[in-house]
Amino acid sequence: HASTSLSSRLGYTLHFVNEESIAIISLLNSDVFKHFPKLKFVVPHGGGAIPYHMGRFMATRYPSTRNIGREAVPESEYFENAMKKLYYDTCVYTKDGLELLFRSVGSDNCLFGTETPGAGSAVNSKTPKPLDDLKSVIDSIDWLSEGDRKKIFEGNAMKLYRFN
Predict the structure, then answer these.
(1) Could you tell me where the DSSP H helices lie in the chain?
(2) How far apart are CA 73 and CA 95, in angstroms?
């Protein structure tokens, strides 16, 4: 989780989104997983802007007709596959954002996360609930299976932290 920023141009939340996105790209573009293949990271806030801009990051690893000097990467290192080396929490605040996260990385790589008290304590103007009441939001995503929900709410954390 990134620290706060004193920049008037880069507020509290935007700083988190930027830092989380930079951390993911830096890790996936490094040799860290070659040296430590079993290393596990949990990225907060659904991976920052990564799910939203997946296509841009995918394009950097695909063969290019314009940049013929670019070396091909194995399919296992295509961005959409490499990003599954990481885990992502669900502290995203909206159903649309959570659906995009689940579709982008899959239920196997998501861990339930909440931020109350905190920024998520604000009450959604359209519901009587805090923005961070994410269990009910996840439960409302009808295309998630019960198995997906179980993984997100507890199974992935149990596996990741070796409680099973």
Answers:
(1) 12-28, 32-35, 54-59, 79-82, 95-105, 134-139, 146-150, 156-160
(2) 34
Report how far residue 77's alpha carbon sits from residue 64's, in angstroms, rounded to the nearest whole number: 15
Please give the Cα distance from 152 to 89 (Å, whole number): 9
* Calpha distance 73→58 (Å, rounded): 11
The residue with greater pLDDT, 152 or 12, is: 152
Angstrom distance (rounded) from CA 84 to CA 54: 13
Distance set, CA 106 to CA 5, 47, 122 (Å): 31, 13, 28
pTM of the model: 0.87
d(CA 103, CA 29): 22
DSSP-derived secondary structure letter, 130: B
Residues 6+ apart with CB under 8 A from 109: 84, 86, 87, 88, 156
Q: Over the stretch 92-125, which tens digit does the pLDDT of each residue have?
A: 889 999 999 999 999 999 999 987 666 667 788 8
Q: In the predicted model, what is the mean pLDDT of residues 34-41?
A: 93
Strands 87-89 vs 110-111: parallel, antiparallel or unpaired: parallel
